[in-house]
Design brief:
The protein is built from eight helices and no strands. It has helices at 2-7, 14-25, 31-47, 51-71, 76-88, 99-109, 117-130, 134-147. Helix 7 packs antiparallel against helix 8.
Length: 148
C-alpha cells in the first residue's frame, strides 16, 4: 500500500497500474486499498487507446470510488483520491460534482487524520496542483503551513 501511495498520482502506464492493482489485491483488504484499486482503474483509462475500454475502466473506477466514499464518508484519503481524480478526468464525462463536498470534508477532517505527516504534505501538494478555486488554494496553503 505504501508503494502505491508513494507513487500516486505519478503512474506512467497501464502496465504499471495493473502491477499496482495486483499488489493491492495481495494486501489485507481495507477501504484504503480498495480506493487505490479504484484509482488504478482511472489511471488505466488514461493510458488505454481503445475508447470503449477507456470508458469501461473509468466507469469501474468511478463506481468503486463513489461506493467507498458513501460507505466511509469521513475517510480523508478516500475523499482525497476522488477529489484529485475528478480534477484529472475530462470534464465532458461529468465527473466533477463532488469536488466541493470532498474538499470540505478533507479540510474539516485533515488535521485529525492519522496519516503520516510526510504523506499529508504530499496529499496537500497534489491538491494544490489541481485546485482551480482561489478559496480552496488559500485553505490548502493554510493546511500546508499548519503541517510544517
Amino acid at each position: 500500500l505504501d508503494e502505491v501511495r508513494n507513487h500516486f498520482p505519478d503512474i506512467r502506464s497501464e502496465a504499471q497500474a495493473d502491477l499496482y492493482i495486483q499488489k493491492l489485491e495481495n494486501v489485507p483488504k481495507s477501504p484504503i486499498s480498495e480506493a487505490y484499486i479504484a484509482a488504478m482503474f482511472f489511471v488505466k483509462s488514461r493510458f488505454t487507446t481503445f475508447p470503449i475500454r477507456k470508458y469501461k475502466y473509468f466507469k469501474k473506477g468511478k463506481l468503486m470510488l463513489d461506493k467507498l466514499v458513501d460507505e466511509h464518508p469521513e475517510m480523508v484519503e478516500i475523499r482525497y483520491l476522488r477529489y484529485l481524480l475528478q480534477h484529472q478526468v475530462p470534464r465532458f464525462l461529468g465527473y466533477y460534482e463532488h469536488t466541493d463536498v470532498d474538499f470540505e470534508m478533507i479540510s474539516i477532517k485533515f488535521t485529525e487524520s492519522d496519516l503520516p505527516i510526510q504523506y499529508k504534505r504530499k496529499l496537500l501538494r497534489n491538491m494544490l496542483q489541481v485546485s482551480q478555486q482561489p478559496a480552496q488554494i488559500v485553505r490548502i496553503n493554510e493546511l500546508i503551513n499548519n503541517q510544517l
